[in-house]
From TrEMBL:
It comes from Roseospirillum parvum. Catalyzes the NADPH-dependent rearrangement and reduction of 1-deoxy-D-xylulose-5-phosphate (DXP) to 2-C-methyl-D-erythritol 4-phosphate (MEP). This is 1-deoxy-D-xylulose 5-phosphate reductoisomerase. Mn(2+) binds at D154, E156, E225. Its cofactor is Mg(2+); Mn(2+).
Length: 394
């Protein structure tokens, strides 16, 4: 459970990313509490090596086998074990000395290592929402089988987790997920056609990786979070509302049958939900700006616009349809977002590619993780094939 030296063993998957570095910032401030076991990354080898040295990690892993020699050279003489490849990331997640695994890889690439942490019954601080979107039923079944504890890190789900009375579920009426509306909340549909990746990643409230920032701009992020909430809290789609709240101060709410609505509030800084997940069920200090509602003065709310943000509608329909539809939605979205960031398609083409991919494939429910991986791969191939035709049709 804990290290021989009494500290809480922690592995960070995706250590070089936005969530990974925020996690390590908290670890840096609490050296007597946490012991870093393994750190993983993909391409940012120097940052990975630097963090591994700073935190005296047992193991550093790059998921890219072609970067093994670079990582080995960067850690020469440190005594830190080095490994490479997707299977090595899974092995890192399996290391038993880490009581908690922070799952902060972006995309479905995080599925296998997150499942490995779940399978050994670890505490899994889950940032990687795509895991639950593409394999939610299988993941929650694996959690039930192994006795793993899933601690939501995504700010909305962490908020819900803090105010959701799981012991008295019959008292819960619905979940209200808040959404900032992203950088294009007030942009006309016609103008969205020409927005650039730089504009799309410029989130008004949060500093995040490129992929989730684009998802926030298209509101696919809220669609993914709808599916994530369905799996984390076993709530039907019909009892999960989405409400645009541009200030990102109320991170989400739970409405009860007696008319009470419980919310979690805070300044938008991921170190709050990360600290909650790392310290749970206790609390730890987080070096974040304190909320001053008097200074903010106004909190506003509006309904989401499903015409300008069709991704939200597609995600809700995929959740209603069930089976493999969310797996297809997620994989197609990953392909389309990468193509948008690479300037191969326009912003509005993202939802069009997802829609067309969903229309092409049989959404039969995957019965195993291998079937999820197969459906994910088929959806990626289909989405890649569709990139050209969707653009040509605009
Ligand atoms: N950022 C945020 O505030 C929030 C993020 N999340 C979720 O958390 C997850 C991480 O997001 P974020 O930190 O923003 O993303 P980043 O892009 O900042 O970081 C992603 C991390 O994953 C690694 N990675 C990328 N591709 C692969 C791969 N194929 N195999 C293994 N590792 C890989 C990256 O390595 P490298 O950089 O070395 O290439 C990096 O360490 C996402 O699922 C996101 O939706 C949820 C809520 C808030
Ligand atoms: C910080 C976090 O949890 C993000 O998922 C955030 O919610 C994105 O903001 P949007 O509400 O704009 O999607
Ligand atoms: Mn979120």
């Amino acid at each position: 459970m804990t290290e021989a030296d009494g500290r809480h063993g922690l592995t960070v998957l995706g250590a070089t990313g936005s969530i990974g570095t925020s996690t390590l910032d908290l670890v840096r401030r609490n050296p007597d509490t946490f012991k870093v076991v393994a750190l993983t990354a993909h391409s940012r080898i120097l940052e990975l090596a630097e963090a591994a040295r700073e935190f005296n990690a047992e193991l550093a892993v790059t998921s890219d086998p072609a970067r093994y020699q670079d990582l080995k050279a960067a850690l020469e003489g440190s005594g830190i074990e080095v490994a490479a490849g997707p299977e090595a990331v899974v092995e890192a997640a399996r290391r038993p000395s880490a009581r908690t695994v922070m799952a902060a890889i972006v995309g479905a690439a995080g599925l296998a290592p997150t499942l490995a942490a779940v399978a050994r019954g670890a505490r899994v601080a889950l940032a990687n929402k795509e895991c639950l979107v593409c394999a939610g039923d299988l993941m929650t079944a694996a959690v039930a089988d192994s006795g793993a504890v899933l601690l939501p890190v995504d700010s909305e789900h962490n908020a819900i987790f803090q105010v959701f009375d799981d012991e008295r579920r019959e008292g819960i009426e619905k979940i209200i997920l808040t959404a900032s509306g992203g950088p294009f909340r007030r942009t006309a549909l016609e103008d969205m056609r020409a927005v650039t990746p730089e504009q799309a990643v410029a989130h008004p409230n949060w500093s995040m990786g490129a992929k989730i920032s684009v998802d926030s701009a298209s509101m696919m992020n809220k669609g993914l979070e709808l599916i994530e909430a369905h799996h984390l809290f076993a709530m039907p789609e019909s009892r999960i509302d989405i409400l645009v709240h541009p200030q990102s101060v109320i991170h989400s709410m739970v409405a009860y049958v007696d008319g009470s609505v419980l919310a979690q509030l805070g300044c938008p800084d991921m170190r709050t939900p990360i600290a909650y997940a790392l310290a749970w069920p206790a609390r730890m200090k987080a070096p974040v700006e304190r909320l001053d509602l008097g200074k903010i003065a106004t909190l506003s709310f509006e309904a989401p616009d499903l015409v300008r943000f069709p991704a939200l509608r597609l995600a809700r329909e995929a959740l209603r349809q069930g089976g493999g539809a969310p797996t297809i939605l997620n994989a197609a979205n990953e392909v389309a977002v990468a193509a948008f960031l690479g300037r191969r398609i326009g912003f509005l083409d993202i939802a069009a590619v997802v829609d067309a991919t969903l229309a092409r494939l049989d959404p039969k429910a995957p019965a195993s993780i291998d079937e999820v991986i197969g459906l994910d791969a088929a959806a990626r191939r289909t989405a890649e094939d569709l990139l050209g035709s969707v653009v040509a049709a605009q």
